[in-house]
Amino acid sequence: MSNVFEKILDGVKAVAPVAANLVVPGSGSLVEGLMRAVTGDGPETPIEAVAEKIAADPALMVQLQEKAMDHEAKLAEIEARKLESVNATMREEAKSENWPQYSWRPFNGFTFPLAVLLIYFALPAFGKDVPDVPQWVWMGWLSILGVATWDRGKEKRTKAGENKPGLIAGAIQALRG
Q1: How far lies 39's CA from each of 45, 58, 104, 150, in Å?
Q2: Neighbours of 113 (CB within 10 A)
Q3: pTM (2 decimals)?
Q4: Is 172 exposed, middle or buried (0-12, 13-18, 19+ CB in 10 A)?
Q5: Which stretches of the chain are DSSP H helices?
Q6: For a FRET experiment, which of 10, 24, 124, 133 has its CA 20 to 30 Å from that of 81?
Q7: For residues 41 and 35, what is the distance between their CA atoms, to the nearest angstrom?
């Protein structure tokens, strides 16, 4: 039974970049790059061979984890700068004496569900045709709401002390088992 489990685990380790791509598209090449940087192997070496080297050498696994954590730290730093920039903008907007400047985000947040209800429920209820709203209108509106909501949520989670590992560090923790 132990041999079967080890073979399955080896298979998972060999496809780490593929698995990372399934979770977050585009991240597989990053995981593969980190793995190759640790072993010193170039693109001509199959990723399975690179994964086997790392699995066989605990020192390489530690180096991979360190590289991943360094990468996550750099990403967290970039995210923190971006979040501070967005928050500074929002604070300046809130200080404004010009009501459209400080109220546009809440206004969008309240009017979006109202628009959906009116267009897709109220109009049909009154026997009116539902207009063909262009997809770019919804995408733009939801993008604004998504960014504002995500940034606000991230700020609240950070203030609450949340400190989850990033994608790469989490993937390496999963590989280590």
Answers
A1: 10, 12, 51, 37
A2: 10
A3: 0.41
A4: buried
A5: 2-14, 16-23, 27-39, 47-56, 58-95, 99-117, 123-125, 135-159, 167-176
A6: 24
A7: 9
Tell me if 27 sits within 8 A of 167, measured CB to CB.
yes
Q: For the purposes of burial, counting CB atoms within 10 Å of the CB of 17, is it exposed (0-12), middle (13-18) or buried (19 or more)?
A: buried
CA distance 44 to 103: 56
Tell me the C-alpha distance between 105 and 92, whole Å: 13
Which residue type sits at 20? Answer: A
Angle between helices 135-159 and 58-95 (to 10 degrees): 110
> Per-residue confidence at 4, pLDDT binned at 50, 70, 90?
low
Between CA 169 and CA 132 the distance in angstroms is 45
Q: Calculate the CA dihedral of residues 155, 156, 161, 166 and round it to 10 degrees.
A: -50
Min mean pLDDT across 14-28, 112-126, 130-144 is at: 14-28
| pLDDT tens by residue, 67-102 | 888 878 887 788 878 777 777 776 776 666 666 656
